[in-house]
Design goal:
By secondary structure, this protein is of the alpha/beta class. It folds into two domains: 245 residues, Metallo-beta-lactamase, Chain A (4-Layer Sandwich); 142 residues, Rossmann fold. Helix content is 34%, strand content 24%. Helix 11 links the parallel strand 21 and strand 22. Helix 5 packs across helix 9, helix 6 runs antiparallel to helix 7 and helix 9 packs across helix 10. It binds MU-OXO-diiron. MU-OXO-diiron (FEO) binds next to helix 2.
Length: 403
């Protein structure tokens, strides 16, 4: 069988969805699966834009053959060589050994590292290089570190399709949809787009800004944005471009507070509950609370890309920082989270250490501002601790309102 959809009259989506995979890159949970997008273009020459993951390999290959409808594959454009898009490359080359492969120099090198059987038909291209394939011209633009160094994107001047590699991608399987206007963006897709961006491209804000600049220079000639994951955009580009602009500048989308707490016996959680309650009573209603032990860090990263203020409350553990909180704060640092207002609360029964370790990591990040005094609780919050949390919540609420 095959399952393909038309992007235009001569461009077909030939990808597939994996609803079984638990963890993307064996790290990030996929409760709603993921799509691996690939596209066939039919002109005087036939072109395939990227391949797909092995997990959907059988359907993908059937889809390519169905779209080609008996024609040979002339050109394979490899925009991104990460194995979720390239692990079926060998199968394409074996079926169509004369296929000409276009990719960056670094992608060509990586093909050898991954031991792909690419024959001698690999052509390295760079910024602005063009390829005539009949009635249209493809132009290649490099997009290093969005999300690997070898990445490029490809623009088709006839259809206006930009094959954008990982950029503008999303977790989640397509479930029959193809276009972004066929999915409920506010009903979860945008949240998954944010989680995808934050964890996959989030570290590389300046490089994403460079790609946005190239997209802007193409102006109204862009009619479709075709990413390697998630829906294709054919209208309302400003919706996703504005999100990408904010995310890649590390600017918050929402004035509000994300509270992340690490608690062993509920005492630190109680302090977090008191903080949240006071914030809401002070008029800050956009407050989210997360137990760091129960929430996969990819979701926490997504939240800190969204919110202006971050409250971290953590127990001390083995004379150090509670391990899941350490993992979260270190991941924030690794992904270059910047420009956030922060509140810190530590807990410890005999030697509180959490605050110093958290601030030690946060101090290495860009423009992270502490808006309250760092608070210390010794075991269970007493009346004095509660009073201090209420007072700090008032200061935090004021900061949110002034954001
Ligand atoms: Fe979807 Fe960076 O690969």
């Amino acid at each position: 069988m095959h399952c393909i959809r038309k992007v235009t009259d001569d461009i077909y989506w030939v990808g597939g969805n994996d609803k079984r995979l638990e963890l993307f890159e064996n790290i990030h949970p996929l409760p709603d699966g993921v799509s691996y997008n690939s596209y066939v273009m039919l002109d005087e020459k036939t072109v395939l834009f990227d391949t797909a993951d092995w997990d959907i390999g059988r359907l993908f290959l059937s889809n390519v053959e169905a779209a080609l409808d008996g024609r040979a594959l002339d050109v394979l454009v490899v925009n991104h060589l990460e194995p979720d898009h390239a692990s079926t490359l060998n199968e394409i080359v074996r079926r169509w050994p004369d296929v000409q492969i276009y990719c960056t120099v670094m992608a060509e090198r990586m093909m050898k590292q991954y031991c792909y059987e690419t024959t001698d038909n690999v052509h390295a291209v760079g910024e602005g290089d063009k390829l005539e394939i009949g009635s249209r011209t493809l132009t290649f633009y490099t997009a290093p570190m969005v999300h690997w160094p070898e990445v490029m994107v490809t623009f088709d001047d006839k259809s206006g399709a930009l094959f954008s590699a990982d950029a503008f991608g999303t977790f989640g399987s397509l479930d029959g949809a193809l276009f972004a206007d066929e999915v409920d963006l506010d009903g979860g897709w945008m949240a998954e787009a944010r989680r995808y961006y934050g964890n996959i491209c989030g570290k590389y804000g300046p490089q994403v800004q460079m790609l946005l600049g190239k997209l802007k220079s193409l102006g109204d000639s862009v009619k479709f944005i075709c990413p390697l994951h998630g829906p294709v955009w054919r209208k309302n580009f400003d919706v996703i471009e504005e999100k990408y602009d904010k995310w890649s500048k590390y600017e918050p989308e929402v004035n509000g507070v994300v509270i992340v707490y690490g608690s062993m016996y509920g005492n630190t959680e109680g302090a977090a509950q008191l903080l949240a309650s006071e914030l809401v009573q002070q008029g800050v209603t956009d407050v989210r609370m997360f137990d760091v032990s129960k929430t996969n860090v990819s979701y926490l990263i997504s939240e800190v890309f969204k919110y202006s203020h971050i409250a971290l409350l953590s127990v001390t553990y083995n004379m150090g920082l509670f391990p899941p909180m350490r993992a979260f704060v270190e991941d924030m640092q690794a992904l270059n989270i910047s420009n956030r207002k922060v509140m810190i609360v530590e807990n410890g029964t005999w030697a509180p250490q959490a605050s110093g370790i958290m601030t030690g990591i946060l101090d290495e990040m860009q423009n992270m501002e502490y808006v309250t005094e760092k608070l210390t609780i010794m075991s269970s919050p007493d009346e004095d601790d509660s009073g201090a949390i209420v007072k700090a919540a008032d200061t935090l609420a004021q900061s949110v309102k002034e954001q």
